[in-house]
Specification:
45% helix, 16 helices, binds GDP-alpha-D-glucose, nine-stranded mixed β-sheet, Rossmann fold, six-stranded parallel β-sheet
């Protein structure tokens, strides 16, 4: 990968570290993993909310970047993060799966917090010898490009959106649509997971700013300035998941799970407990399957790992209640005396080795979001299955970014059609082995060809080449 010859400044909602029993460590998310080697080489800084009562250290071992915390008050967290980011933008950008809340006070706090992030960027770049490349992440910080541009006029500035970008007629409902687009258009390059999201963005820009011309990936603004709007699908570290798939710890975990589920097929869901992920619809499909096919009862189990998420937000607490009610109802209806329950529900995250063991165990991996920017769980599943010689089936919603990459090798589902989805689950359980194996191999190859290092390389190159004159 060709790297820009400047230090890197990342601006993201969170700092890339977490407190563990062994002290502070780099966080384990995909973005941090992918940037580690790049930051190792270029050095740099990371600006983010510290979200820890005792604050974070200025550096951690094994991560070559200075950490610059932005501290937020309780009210700012409530209004900028839980409010505007997670109850306004998140549902709006996921096609209104729930109704977005429009609140002027939250918007003002979002603006204020974005300014505070930019103040920290200003301090960081003031000390830099060479103007750094500044890379801003996600929907929490959409006003940054414009704010940061004045702080560092000679820096290449990039923005990447990890969620979908909605169709223009939905985006237009946001009272502050102009300010958001204006904020973004100060970047040199703006990245999206798919061409559909990119095109939605370009059409929004063209509707609200007549006089913007789109030439391929380039947008020419009325003042002649050019920026790039690109589709760069995010991915995973394929090698890391390949070795995790067959590690000793994973084998031990798998042996236990195989014993627990001996004689039954396993359908699996792994998601943050978020209303975009289609968990309720999935459970309803399972219920219909059990209802329609009494002969299949006891022959399969459905395991749902639901990682706690945003439980300060009302809609998420309500979702938890309804998911748990649904699980209770299914198990109440279909458990036979003396037998195991049909639905296993874990309200927690599991260690990585256990996660890999579940991926290996699954006969059908159900990735059925109502809307999802990309969805890395699907990519992790096919990579782990393929590395371990598995032949699991991927049931994949057509409404996630990953679906654009896997063509017909996944069994495609429309999760809104819960009955149709229950038939797809049934047929996924009966695909021929050779067919299953070939599908997994082809999907794993797609992921191998476009891993997360390629995503970082493409993004950084795009930002470095990005904007032009006047
Ligand atoms: C956002 C966008 C986009 C899950 N359970 C456990 C666990 N995980 C890890 C998975 C995966 C990650 O969490 C989830 O990533 P996703 O991409 O599936 O979903 P979001 O969290 O919604 O991410 C999404 C992504 O950003 C990147 O741009 O793809 O569309 O919504 O890596 O492995 N990890 C462990 N235990 C668990 O129980 N250790």
């Amino acid at each position: 990968m060709e790297l820009p010859e400047r230090p890197l400044v990342i601006v993201a909602n969170r700092l890339p570290v977490s407190r563990t029993e062994d002290g502070w460590q780099p966080a384990s998310g995909g973005l941090v993993t992918a940037l580690k080697p790049v930051i190792e080489q270029l050095g740099g800084a990371w600006i983010g909310w510290d979200d820890d009562p005792e604050g974070v250290p200025p550096r951690v071992d094994d991560f070559n970047a200075d950490l610059h915390p932005v501290s937020l008050t309780e009210q700012e967290v409530a209004e900028y993060y839980h409010g505007f980011a997670n109850r306004t933008l998140w549902p709006l950008f996921h096609d209104l799966v729930v109704e977005p809340v429009i609140d002027r006070g939250w918007w003002r706090t979002y603006e204020e917090v974005n300014r505070r992030f930019a103040d920290t960027v200003r301090k960081v770049v003031a000390d830099a010898e060479v103007p750094p490349l500044i890379w801003i992440q996600d929907y929490h910080l959409m006003l940054q490009p414009e704010l940061v541009r004045s702080a560092s006029p000679d820096s290449p500035i990039g923005f990447f959106l990890h969620t979908p970008f909605p169709p223009p007629e939905l985006f237009a409902r946001l009272p502050w649509r102009d300010q958001i687009l204006h904020g973004l258009l100060a970047a040199d390059a703006i990245g999206f997971h798919t061409r559909v999201y990119r095109d939605n963005f370009v059409r929004s820009v063209q509707q609200l700013y007549p006089g913007v011309t789109a030439l391929g990936e380039t947008l020419v603004l009325p003042d002649g300035r050019q920026i790039r709007a690109v589709a760069h699908p995010i991915s995973i570290d394929v090698q890391e998941f390949g070795s995790l798939a067959v590690s000793d710890e994973t084998e031990v975990e798998l042996a236990e799970l195989e014993q627990q589920f001996a004689g039954r097929k396993v359908l699996l869901g792994v998601d943050r407990l978020d209303y975009t992920k289609g968990i309720r619809h999935r459970l309803q499909s399972i219920e219909l399957l059990l209802e329609r096919r009494p002969d299949l009862r006891g022959t399969f189990a459905f395991v749902q790992i639901a990682v706690p998420s945003r439980d300060d937000v009302e809609e998420y607490r309500r979702l938890r209640t309804s998911v748990e009610t649904e699980v209770g109802r299914i198990n109440g209806r279909f458990t036979e005396p003396g037998k195991d329950v049909p639905v296993h529900y874990l309200y927690r995250g599991v260690p990585r080795e256990a996660l890999a063991a579940y991926y290996r165990l699954a006969d059908v991996m159900c990735v059925t979001p109502l809307k999802d920017g990309m969805n890395l769980v699907a990519k992790e599943f096919v990579t782990v299955q393929s590395a371990a010689g598995g032949d699991g089936v991927l049931l994949l919603s057509e409404f996630c970014g990953t679906a654009m990459e896997f063509a017909d090798d996944a069994v495609r589902s429309n999760p809104f059609d819960v009955e149709g989805q229950s038939y797809l689950m049934e047929s996924a359980l009966t695909l021929e082995r050779e067919d299953r194996r070939a599908r997994i191999a082809r999907m794993a190859e797609v992921v191998r060809d476009g891993d997360v290092y390629r995503w970082v390389g493409d993004e950084l190159a795009g930002i470095a080449e990005g904007g032009h004159g006047p």
